[in-house]
Amino acid sequence: MRSRQLDAAGITDPELRASYEYCKKINAEHGKTYYLATLLLPPQKRPFVHSLYAFARYADEIVDSLDSQPVEQRSQALTDLADRFFVDLARGSSAHPVCAATVDTALRWGIPTAHFEAFIESMQMDLYIDHYDTYADLEKYVYGSAAVIGLQMVPILEPSSERAYGYAKDLGFAFQLANFIRDVGEDLQRQRIYLPLDELASFGVSPEDVRARVVTDQFREALKFQIARVRRLESASRPGIELLAPDSQPCIETARILYCGIVDEVEKIDYQVFTKRAKVPLARRLAVAVPGWQKARRARRR
């Protein structure tokens, strides 16, 4: 991370700067669309957003990328991370390469501990739960795995009203549900089905049908139903962007368009989520990001 960003953010301790640099690297490597959106933030805000992404990614890697290890071992690794984080948070500092920056971010911006607790709880759920019978069941997982990430970010984005938090929750849900729709095939490789089973059943789709990896007319209708939910949540979240600081708005607006645009790409590939990965094309990303960058520059000048 360029010193200008760290200097602007008031991060002076060498070890803490190293942690923020590491978090930025994780964000750039593993969350390209998210990282692209962060470039539209003022330099002094970017390090804090990178730290929140890196902590979430670090925990997620324990859950997903260590599948060769017994679930009990992964659960213990996640518990160890959580214990260390919360102890460090109470102490006010950390020596962990990722937690150091995240603890600093949480303390600087007054991010409630409950948001991190909900996130860890959802990560633990992901170790043991491979399906959700109803949308109500899924909501608890999505709240902790995605909505709280948005809630963590809101203070950094400097809202003008507490109402911004409710809108951020809606947008977090939209982002995660869009990912579930895109990743149906990939999630099957981990023996997971995130689409609510009762809603699939209402379209005549069983778990066995999903595992068969065949896109039938019934499956298309089931995905259309899920896509409509993403669009409702995305639409409901839009007023919240205007409640953020002007120099934060282009970042979230760009993220909203690109992340929720995943479902548009699912439609374009005719719902073939088992054999193709829906991606927002580079041309589309640039078409959204460039005007966003211009708006961000104007906002910072004002």
The total strand number stands at: 0
Give the helix level as a range of percent: over 70%
Overall shape: it is globular
**Gyration radius over CA:** 19 Å
The proportion of residues in beta strands is under 5%
Low-confidence stretches: none
Name the average pLDDT. Answer: 93
Structural class: mainly alpha
CATH topology name of the largest domain, in short, is Farnesyl Diphosphate Synthase
The rounded distance between the terminal residues' Cα atoms is 25 Å
Biggest sheet, open or closed, and with what strands and sense? none
Q: Write out the CATH superfamily name of the largest domain.
A: Farnesyl Diphosphate Synthase
Number of helical segments with 4 or more residues: 16
The CATH architecture designation of the largest domain is Orthogonal Bundle
Order of helices and strands: HHHHHHHHHHHHHHHH
| Number of individual domains | 2
CATH class of the largest domain: Mainly Alpha
Structural overview:
- The radius of gyration is 19 Å and the shape is globular.
- The longest helix has 25 residues, at 217-241.
- Helices cover 73% and strands 0% of the residues.
- It contains 16 helices and no strands.
- The chain starts with a helix and ends with a helix.
- It has helices spanning 3-8, 14-30, 32-38, 46-64, 71-91, 99-109, 113-128, 135-157, 164-182, 184-189, 197-201, 207-211, 217-241, 249-260, 262-268, 282-301.
- It is mainly α and 302 residues long.
- It folds into 2 domains: 1-128, Farnesyl Diphosphate Synthase, CATH 1.10.600.10; 129-302, Orthogonal Bundle (Farnesyl Diphosphate Synthase), CATH 1.10.600.10.
- Helix 3 (32-38) runs antiparallel to helix 14 (249-260) and helix 7 (113-128) packs antiparallel against helix 8.
